[in-house]
Amino acid sequence: RHEVVSWGDQYGTPDNSMWTWDGTTWSLLQAGTVTPPTPSPAEGKGVVEAGPISPVDAAALIRKTVTTEAPVLLPGWLPASLEATVSAGADGFTVHYVSDQRDININWGIVVPNPPPAPPNAGGGPVHFRGVTAEYMVSDKTATYSSRWLMWNEPGKMATFPTKSGEVPFFLSADGLTDAEFWQVANSLQ
Hints:
Helices cover 11% and strands 39% of the residues. By secondary structure, the chain is mainly beta. Strand 9 (123-129) and strand 10 form a beta hairpin. The protein starts with a strand and ends with a helix.
């Protein structure tokens, strides 16, 4: 075939369909025979896990599931052709967006992060974002598509308080986005 062949896996469609990639386009070779899993609560934890699903479906699932935290911020803009994998409970969520060619990865959620130490070519520092001081880091300021992250505490409410009362911790990280694209995602949060 002189093409890459892929079938349902952790990052593809979960229905065992078979796809080919000619270096430019993914094409369905054979439809799957397995019904994709539907979101269901994880054992006894009230956590819903779903994916891969569309970013629109991920947003709807998160808004329906996260009930004890506010605000629940989600991006209004994402690069085209992303799919999402979600883990959400009443008190928080994480969502992983990935492009069909796996060259863009975006992680987003209500989490208290523990980012790695800054590498030698890192850049960033405190930035003013959404009315608060946030921490921003680019792993390699000389590389256009370098890993980058942004973390801050948003004024709001939480059922449990890993941060100061009245604040909700958010963390956004990405690989494969330019600085402008990263900030387009960050500034679209609503």
